[in-house]
Amino acid sequence: MKYVIIGNSAAGIGAVEGIRQIDKQGEITVISNEKHHTYSRPLISYLLLGKVTKENMKYRSDNFYADNNVNFLSDISVTAIDAKTKNVSLSNNSKITYDKLLVATGSSPFVPPFEGLDTVKDKVTFMSLDDAQKLDEAIAKKSDAKVLIIGAGLIGLKCAEGIIKRVSKITVVDLAPRILSSILDEDGAKIVQSHIEKQGIEFKLASSVKKFDGNKAIFENGETINFDVLVLAVGVRPNTSLLKDIANIDRGIIVNNKSETSMQDIYAAGDCTQAMDISSGQSKIMALLPNAYMQGECAGINMASLKDGEKSFDKAIPMNAIGFFGLHIITAGNYTGEVFLKSEEENYKKLFFSENKLNGYIIIGDVEKAGIYTSLIRERTPLDSIDFALVCEKPGLMAFTKEDRNIKLGGGK
Description:
By secondary structure, the protein is of the alpha/beta class. The protein has helices at about 10-20, 45-50, 65, 130-140, 155-165, 185-195, 290-305, 370-380, 390-395, 400-410, and strands spanning about 1-5, 25-30, 70-75, 80, 85-90, 95, 100-105, 105-110, 125, 145-150, 170-175, 200-205, 210, 215-220, 225, 230, 235-240, 255, 265-270, 275, 280-285, 320-325, 325-335, 340-345, 345-355, 355-365.
């Protein structure tokens, strides 16, 4: 059996390990358009901060490919997929045939067509190890560099945290009226913004850049800001183009709970895909490293299995676990239904529930027991089967029945 995996991040690695659970001998080829060993993308800001090294960033050990008998092709892009002849064309003008194919191509930065962007000398995106190295070089040119970050989402703010000690000023601009607008409500965003501002970072929200003139940003209201380095962190777009006219694509590649696309023998996993969110019942992109790994592992097991439906990835929910300058944030699910709210200084908890189920939550500060809430969402636990009032105030296993406690502790079925 010939397995080809396009992508070398969490989903691709999960697929390799999934395949090898079933098939110890099949031929696996992993193709990466980056030159690096597999690494953890969320750690690139910590590389700039000096908290990790390139060695620490590796997602698997140096001998991972050898141990799993993987043919690893680095710094090579896939240019086309021929689903009829079952081969992929590569940027080095060669072709590779496959029996089973996984597309785990992730996502790419979205760069708006700003007027004058080409006049900015030092500009970077912030999604890859190469991006981090380029930014490192750019801010090293000047001891008192001023950095302008376009985008107050997860990527832009992690970038700001990573470089804050190495530059003289950081200004973060976003069109939205609050930071982290895709995962936080207004009150939660205010808490996090205040915490970040205490580190010396300036925000310009509900604001947009009209054009650039060299190292000057000119805003829609006529205001200008001078900077030395520009970071573009506006957002990302799933890399779906390889399966255009081959498989069903919405915003992302549509997959079922087996990680299969609509084209036979082609699977997809990770940030390039759209899967069912069990908290809302909607198909959506859920870009999260653990989701990507589990979806990739699911794909690998099913690619190698002789039985239909060997493995399912059917408990996916949108989720984010992140921290900024020591303040932790975990969010999950969707924000619909009735609300339980508890807020005290930098500790903020908001639970959303309806129809006897927990739908989602936002927790800032004390996130220690957030896993209890995540489990309730994933398992669609009926709230009348637990002491939900107690769980809202003090999440813990004592709020569950004895039988459920045994199951969660591994002592029952």
